[in-house]
Amino acid sequence: MTKFGDFAPLCHDTPSYPWCNLFYRQIQHHQSSVFTSVSSNPATAPVGINPTCGIPFVGSNGSLANIANIVACALSIFVVGALIFLTSRRRAAVGRVEFRIFLVLYWLTLPLQLLTTGSVLQQGSTALTVLTAIHAGFVAATFWALLGNAIVSTQVVEDGTLSSLIPFSFFTLAFFIAVTYISLDTAFSFTSVFGPSDPADSLNNIALFILTNIWPAAAAVIYFALMLYIILGILNELKPVWFYILAAGLFVLSQLDFFLLNKVICKGANQKIDGSFVATILETASVVVLYFGWKGITEEQWDDQEYAYYYGR
């Protein structure tokens, strides 16, 4: 029976689910016998634990790795890089620094996603395990940064000042360190707190499950609720709302694709590609739309004289 915090169903039924890399190393470390043939050989094993469908390690059986998602991640890196540049140019926009931090964090997750889900690093290797732990840390920090941007938009504290940036940066760093440590402990079993799973085949880790599955979803929901309140209730605007509704829709579609259609695409493509590339494209599209929504509710850049006067320069 599946319990709360079990990763076994996700690692079995969801191709290219990155956090399974942590449990693969955990199982190896404790010499567990829960592997079946598809996962037992690291030289060919796809991402996952006994997956129903997965893309084999690059080079094995003629595999080109998860080439579709690799391309999607690479293109997304350039797109988000352009958004970071455009955000930096809007010097007087409200929440510019905080929104740029969010974009930088999301940008950092993309090359990590490429490596942790691309079937380009051998399952169970130290490099893949550590990169997966760092990836998990950045994902958790990214969703805090997303939620933090909504809090900053309420103007509870003045954006871009120490009163905003210190707590914003503190929680960003705290999420990154905490989730990275929990992920590493899950994989390498430094302590008995976060591993090994009992029973081994459940792949159970409640803390990791909350921080990599429930926390991102909760942060996204609260963010969109706060932004709709700010736009409709405080700014009394309607047009920017459609950007946020579209961004929310794209994000939901990305998750539906990853968790529901991913395996279908994998089987239909005979394990050459899976649905992760569609999820990556939709997530990046959601971030692009968020940029335009943020741009629509913030001031345009002031002229140099006004900008200098405002900051006392």
Provide an overview of this structure:
Helix 4 (about 65-90) runs antiparallel to helix 5 (about 95-115) and helix 7 packs antiparallel against helix 8 (about 205-235). Mean pLDDT is about 90; it is low at about 300-313. The protein is mostly helical and about 325 residues long. It has a single domain (about 10-310), classed as Rhopdopsin 7-helix transmembrane proteins, CATH 1.20.1070. It is about 65% helix and about 0% strand. The N and C termini lie far apart (about 65 Å). The chain has helices at about 10-15, 20-30, 35-40, 65-90, 95-115, 125-155, 160-190, 205-235, 240-270, 275-295, 305-310. Pfam families: Chs7. InterPro entries: Chs7 (IPR022057). It comes from Cerrena zonata.
Report the CATH architecture.
Up-down Bundle
Helical run tally? 11
Extended strand count: 0
Largest sheet properties: none
Spans where pLDDT lies below 50 across 5 or more residues: 301-313
What keyword list fits this structure?
Rhopdopsin 7-helix transmembrane proteins; unfolded protein binding; transmembrane helix; membrane; 313 residues; Chs7; globular; mainly alpha
Layout of secondary structure:
Layout: H1 8-13, H2 20-29, H3 37-40, H4 67-89, H5 96-117, H6 126-153, H7 162-188, H8 206-234, H9 239-268, H10 276-297, H11 304-310
What's a concise summary of this model?
GO terms for molecular function: unfolded protein binding. With 313 residues, this protein is mostly helical.
